[in-house]
Amino acid sequence: MEPGNVHIHYHDYEYGFPIHDDNELFARLVLEINQAGLSWLTILKKKDHFYAAFDNFAIEKVARYTDKKIARLLEDEGIIRNRLKINAAIENAKRIRQIQQEAGSFQQWLQDHHLLTKEEWVKLFKKTFLFTGGEIVHSFLMSIGYLPGAHIPSCPVYKKILKEKPVWATSV
Question: So where does Zn(2+) get bound (predicted)?
Answer without folding.
Answer: 11, 151, 155
